[in-house]
């Protein structure tokens, strides 16, 4: 793995520093993306494990888990900005050779995650009955959901620290450690759930507590190498008001982006619901496949975040190098090397990987269109409704690949303010279409309506995202 403190310029037309060979850059992208994909896939295993074990406790408990896990993942998902923001800041500072500043940014992000996690845990534990009631559950299902939420609430600080610590490690071009920790965490979760559910006899609350303990253990494991490196570099481990404000300021625009993205997803579900139960079930099939394939594209976006942040930091250092002379006793951990891939090289190569991966995924989905829906249902009407919409989604996969990579590049550059505004803007063309499709235009409800809904989501919404982020990526505004 290349040193994160290597330097390079980012001039678009000429670059006096030697650039990484194409094969070398491809290896860097894959070395980051493959472990990141493993970590992304490992996380949903927590829900699968909980579902498999709680399912043996009865239908009411499984229904309660379905509701509670949806609420929990929604709450936790809102804080994913902790990973994105920390990746960008850490990568850029390490790329510039500022090892101390990069580690300090990581520590600040961890403290912010801890504080937000404590607040979220208290609110979730206290507000669990209200949240479950709003979702329309009652009786045994509501009791099960409340029990799970309250038992899992103590794990929220650990869940958010996992985000911040993972972002820090990604900024150091290390995606292997989060993968190993996520895989081990899933295994620990199995053992804890089995013990608490079946041996101790805690019921569904045991599943929530097991997940909380496993996530907290993951946070400790991810923090260990970061804290050790911070101590070696003389970085203070105590919270700093200025650092917390900086982390919150960097992350808030990405929170706005996440909320607006969730709004689009909820609008799509609402529209599919209005098309009838068969269309809604078919939408769930297509949406599940879309989200699963998104893991591969998101893994490439994570690689882009880390590499772009590092390249920008190297470019910053290269620009300032003539104005300052490194001392003769410069620490070996902060070398003033040149020769890493330029920002433009990273952008072009990551974009090529994203579009190519999207194209391959699209072809696979199209070829498997006849039998993939059968993995989810045996209802002939649902299968028939899912197939044409799945073809629409498959055709849009190369476009989705470009969207994910543009997002990753701009996140790696710390361009959160633009991303927040751009994501809000993409709702303007999409939300009206979701509304009119829900009301039967242009083809009524059922299968035809679902096809038009996926045309609106996969082509209009994703196309708008590609436009606003692609135009930004072509400019120079995000580079500084």
Give structural notes.
By secondary structure, this protein is mainly α. The protein folds into 2 domains: 21-239, no CATH class; 251-318 and 337-480, no CATH class. 77% of the residues lie in helices and 0% in strands. The protein is built from 16 helices and no strands. It has helices at 22-42, 45-54, 59-77, 81-95, 99-134, 139-152, 156-171, 176-199, 204-232, 241-274, 277-320, 343-367, 380-395, 397-412, 416-438, 446-474. Helix 1 packs parallel to helix 8 (176-199) and helix 8 (176-199) runs antiparallel to helix 9 (204-232). The longest helix is centred in the middle third of the chain and has 44 residues, at 277-320. Residues 1-19 and 323-338 have low confidence and may be disordered.
Q: Can you summarize this structure?
A:
With 480 residues, this protein is mainly alpha-helical.
How would you summarize the topology of this molecule?
Layout: H1 22-42, H2 45-54, H3 59-77, H4 81-95, H5 99-134, H6 139-152, H7 156-171, H8 176-199, H9 204-232, H10 241-274, H11 277-320, H12 343-367, H13 380-395, H14 397-412, H15 416-438, H16 446-474
Helix pairs in contact: 1-8, 1-11, 2-3, 2-8, 2-9, 3-6, 4-5, 4-7, 4-10, 4-11, 5-6, 5-7, 5-9, 5-10, 6-9, 7-9, 8-9, 10-11, 10-15, 10-16, 11-12, 11-13, 11-14, 11-16, 12-13, 12-14, 13-16, 14-16, 15-16
Keywords:
2 domains; disordered N terminus; 0% strand; 16 helices; mainly alpha; 480 residues
Shape: globular
Helices and strands, in order, run as HHHHHHHHHHHHHHHH
Quaternary status: single chain
Number of helices: 16
**Mean pLDDT, as a whole number?**
84
By DSSP, the count of extended strands is 0
Structural class: mainly alpha
Number of domains: 2
Low-confidence stretches: 1-19, 323-338
**What about the largest sheet?**
none
How far do the termini sit from each other? Answer: 26 Å
Strand fraction: under 5%
């Amino acid at each position: 793995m290349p040193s994160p403190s290597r330097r390079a310029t980012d001039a678009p037309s000429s670059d006096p520093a030697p650039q990484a060979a194409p094969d070398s850059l491809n290896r860097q992208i894959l070395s980051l993306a493959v472990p990141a994909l493993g970590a992304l896939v490992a996380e949903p295993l927590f829900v699968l494990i909980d579902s498999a074990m709680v399912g043996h406790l009865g239908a009411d408990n499984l229904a309660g888990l379905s509701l509670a896990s949806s609420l929990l993942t929604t709450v936790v998902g809102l804080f994913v900005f902790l990973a994105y923001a920390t990746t960008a800041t850490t990568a850029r500072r390490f790329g510039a050779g500022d090892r101390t500043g990069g580690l300090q940014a990581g520590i600040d992000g961890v403290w912010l995650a801890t504080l937000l996690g404590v607040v979220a845990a208290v609110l979730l534990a206290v507000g669990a009955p209200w949240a479950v009631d709003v979702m329309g559950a009652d009786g045994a299902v509501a009791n099960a959901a409340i029990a799970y939420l309250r038992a899992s609430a103590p794990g929220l600080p650990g869940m958010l620290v996992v985000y911040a610590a993972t972002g820090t490690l990604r900024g150091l071009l290390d995606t292997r450690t989060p993968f190993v920790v996520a895989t081990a965490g899933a295994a620990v979760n199995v053992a804890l759930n089995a013990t608490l559910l079946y041996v101790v006899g805690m019921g569904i609350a045991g599943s929530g507590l097991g997940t909380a303990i496993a996530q907290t253990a993951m946070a400790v494991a991810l923090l260990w190498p970061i804290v050790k490196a911070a101590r070696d570099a003389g970085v203070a481990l105590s919270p700093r008001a200025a650092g917390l404000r900086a982390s919150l300021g960097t992350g808030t625009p990405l929170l706005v982006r996440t909320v607006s993205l969730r709004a689009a997803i909820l609008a799509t579900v609402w529209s599919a619901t209005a098309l009838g139960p068969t269309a809604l079930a078919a939408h769930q099939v297509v949406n599940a496949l879309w989200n699963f394939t998104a893991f591969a594209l998101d893994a490439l976006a994570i690689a882009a975040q880390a590499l772009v942040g590092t390249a920008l930091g190297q470019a910053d250092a290269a620009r300032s190098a003539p104005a300052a002379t490194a001392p003769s006793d410069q620490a070996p951990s902060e070398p003033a090397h040149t020769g890493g891939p330029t920002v433009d090289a990273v952008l072009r190569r990551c974009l090529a990987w994203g579009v190519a991966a999207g194209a391959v995924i699209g072809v696979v989905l199209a070829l498997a269109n006849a039998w993939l829906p059968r993995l989810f249902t045996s209802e002939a009407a649902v299968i028939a409704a899912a197939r044409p919409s799945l073809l629409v989604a498959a055709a849009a996969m190369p476009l989705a690949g470009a969207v994910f990579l543009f997002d990753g590049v701009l996140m790696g550059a710390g361009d959160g303010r633009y991303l927040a505004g751009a994501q809000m803007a993409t709702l303007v063309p999409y939300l009206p279409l979701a509304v009119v499709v829900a009301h039967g235009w242009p083809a009524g409800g059922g299968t035809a309506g679902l096809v038009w809904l996926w045309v609106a989501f996969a082509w209009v919404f994703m196309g708008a995202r590609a436009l606003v982020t692609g135009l930004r990526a072509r400019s120079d505004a995000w580079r500084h």
